[in-house]
Amino acid sequence: MILAKKDIPKALEILSKEAAVYAPSIRKIEDRTTGVIQEEKIFLPFEEGTEIILDGPNTVKPPKDLLFPNVEKMYQYKAAGEDSYIREILPEDEKKILFGIRPCDMRSIESMDKVFFTKTYVDSYYAKRRDQVTIVAIGCLQPERTCFCDSMGIDPNQAPQADVMMNVAGEPEGESYVLQAQTEKGKALLDAISSLDQQEGAEPYQGTVCSLKIRKAEDLDKKLAGMFDHPIWDKVTKGCIGCGTCTFLCPTCYCFDIDNENYGNEGCKYRCWDSCMFSDYTRMAGGANPRPTKKERLRNRYMHKLSYFNERYGETLCVGCGRCIASCPSHLDISEFIEKATAADPDAVSYTDVPAGTDRKEA
Ligand code: SF4
Ligand code: SF4
């Protein structure tokens, strides 16, 4: 199908009659002390008149929370004799369309699917949202200087896991998009907007490449598995302030905590995102912490992305979106780490390493 750029709002109006549509747009936030208005590009619910921004840099936050909210109630309970109950709170029945997701973020959803659907476990909360969503991906035209998805094996022009793939027709400044269904859900979506089909148009543009190219060893996952006590960890950790920004903005981070909120004899169990960069992430009830300093925490984050996930699921958990690089207040850079680890002598000896949990102070 060929869809003129000017007809995108019309297409979204048609689609929003059947489902809640989310697309990249600008949110304005006013600083309450200075009155300064800040703008950020994120996925917002589409309403008539909403300005959709499909080109330019990717969204500041990935649309991860539409499938895996940062806080969600799991069940409610009451202890009241014969009136006691425990009730599961599954997500509402609501069809959603995620319109304009980039190939890196689509690939991150594929990784989340592996976590929440495979290895004998199905997460019913994630599964219900995932089942109800139809995803339209768009070929990236303007990777930022921190984007390196093509060094991580992702084509910024293609998202084979999306229901519909959308690429600009002809040249990057072309006036229309080529939309191709890749699943049954995708075919149904294109049928719904077929009245806007221009019928003829150029071939989909496929020429985007990332400007940030990094050298990554093919077997970096296996190499890192033997570098747990390597001196590289002392160097890369310097400057980290443990703020957790990298984990909350990462499209592939999926750790969560489960807690209770009680009011008298009733309450609810909820889960919320957690961050392995926080000191209490691994602190145990008795006070011991197997990851007492930022070194152990950052090592775990990078090892999870680049080695542990490969071992369990056969792929790397970093999609090269660059968000953690762009937003880290201390300028820590996972792409630099990948290059350093690729070049490192795996047998180098650390003179500063102290076994975790011995005489290190928590930091
Ligand atoms: S964003 Fe940077 S400073 Fe903050 S926890 Fe992550 S690596 Fe550390
Ligand atoms: S680790 Fe950084 S670059 Fe990799 S997917 Fe997460 S936010 Fe993106």
Written overview of the protein:
By secondary structure, this protein is of the alpha/beta class. The protein has 2 domains: 2-55 and 94-196, no CATH class; 220-258 and 274-343, no CATH class. Helix content is 25%, strand content 20%. It contains 10 helices and 11 strands. The chain has helices at residues 8-15, 103-117, 124-131, 184-192, 220-225, 232-236, 245-249, 294-313, 323-327, 334-343; strands spanning 2-4, 20-30, 37-45, 71-78, 85-88, 96-101, 133-138, 164-168, 176-181, 256-263, 266-273. The protein has a 7-stranded mixed beta sheet with strand order 1-9-8-7-6-2-3. The longest helix has 20 residues, at 294-313. The model is unreliable at 356-360 (pLDDT under 50). The structure holds iron/sulfur cluster (2 copies). One iron/sulfur cluster binds at residues 249-252, 305, 318-324, 334.
Widest β-sheet, arrangement of strands: 1-9-8-7-6-2-3
Q: In angstroms, what separates the terminal alpha carbons?
A: 56 Å
Helical coverage, percent range: 25-40%
Major sheet, described briefly? 7 strands, mixed
In terms of DSSP E residues, the strand content is 15-25%
Question: Rounded to an integer, what's the Rg over CA atoms?
Answer: 23 Å
The SSE string, one letter per element, is EHEEEEEHHEEEHHHHEEHHH
What is the domain tally?
2
Mean pLDDT: 94
Question: Helix/strand/pairing class, anyone?
Answer: alpha/beta
Give the low-confidence spans: 356-360
Q: Give the cofactors and ligands.
A: iron/sulfur cluster
Shape: globular
Q: Number of DSSP helices?
A: 10
Q: How many extended strands?
A: 11
